[in-house]
Amino acid sequence: MTIHAFDDALQLTAQGSGQYQGLTSPAWWNMVGPFGGVTAAVALQAIMLHPERLGDPICLTVNYASGLAQGAFAVSAQPVRTNRSTQHWLVTLSQTDAQGASAVVLTATAITAVRRDT
Question: Are strands 72-82 and 19-23 parallel, antiparallel or unpaired?
Fold first, then answer.
């Protein structure tokens, strides 16, 4: 079975509780970096893979702090508040810069919720 290029771009490897490792995909490369939509989808994918996730995504806000360089990146997805029906998330995506330090390139907030019969 062939994996679609979008699914390939969203592949993340778990590195611990809410910590993931990813790799940029040439299929979604724009002139100076990956398209913003696929980068936002990677942030959401980290939430979807998290074992503590409650419900389905209902909103996502993404802040692009810097361009994502070609290569490996780290994603951290952490629930910051969980209620009976909703969960609030903080996501950061970072890469190692030229000096060897970890630099945040994206932050995101999201809400997931359990859909209840009304």
Answer: antiparallel
